[in-house]
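Continuing the series of single-chain predictions for the mutant panel. This is the parent chain; the variants come on the following pages.
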Amino acid sequence: MVDADVGRALRARSRASRVEALGRALERLADPGGETYARLCEEIPAATGFHPATVRAGLDLALAQFHRRGLEALVASELGPNEVWNPANAPRTTAVVTGGAIPMPTFEALLAPLVVGSTVRVRPGSRERIGAGIFARAVAAEDAELGAAIECVAFARDDANAARAFFDADAVIASGSDATIARIRGQVPPTARFVAYGHRLSIAVVDGRAEAGLAAAVAEDVVLWDELGCLSPVALLALDDVDGWAEAVALALERRSRALPRGAVPLAAAAAIRHERDTAELRAAADGRTRVFASADATVVREADARWGPTPLHRFLRVHPVDGLDGLAAALAPVRAWLSTVGAPEPLHPALSGFGFRRVRPGQMQAPPLDWNHDGIGTLRPLLPHRGG
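Parent structure:
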């Protein structure tokens, strides 16, 4: 456990001091010529199975948002001036359970407690095991006192005593599937603040005739991180020219995959991809409207309607026709509770404003700024829920 003296020293520092040091650590992570960035590029493929070229492209795009100005914008948007929040309401200790397959959410989950003056102990998830350690070393390199406030913990899932000690904290931040969140919720003390980031999915929406540049941007969002992030589009909903969009995106995926090959695909996912391809081929033979575009690294299915189907990820995209905004609302209804972000051309953004999810340009879905409203609840705000005295 982090030494109590370290926690007291952390809380004694001004928020501005913590933010300044953490901003430098973020810039260390994001420096493409630096040792920390090189370590990310080397260790992520070995630990996750992502192709090295795909990892570098994903980091280049996402970490461009990791800088001190971005952190200051996050603090200003969620916490406001120092006097708005009572520091006594900040947790002294925070336990973090990371999830997913990519490192950026891990960085943000560890950043939040440190900003508000809480020490952190983190248990890395099963798929993304290296981000926490690299983040801790980057912070320590910029500020030894802040670095000492982070502890990485490993214990077996069935070790009840270790789990009880780990979750004995003032706050718990957890990311993962809804089942994982439910399991963790049962281990969190009733007195702790529980901040949960559960299952989320994202989509892309286009209108008009298919455009090569826009199709390439959608393909980029699918290719980066092999569609395994919660900001990766699992479906493209076309308000017009669904055949043109399906064909254009399939071609763009095939071209981009030559430079950024798909990484290792688990056996279960490979079997699911094969099953969904075969099922779509059968539908194509039966209805004459479904089409399948399959390459070595990607699958695009032009669906006959807007009904949702299983998405095995790993560069598997369904393209659905929708009849205007009313048709879009109906198509999204089954997944509305899990929607995170939509990639859409900027002229469509005003029309989509009433849907409640974040809207970004295609090609930028994997690069949210630090001050984006994470899962609709924020990054820092959940740790400081009480205003005033």
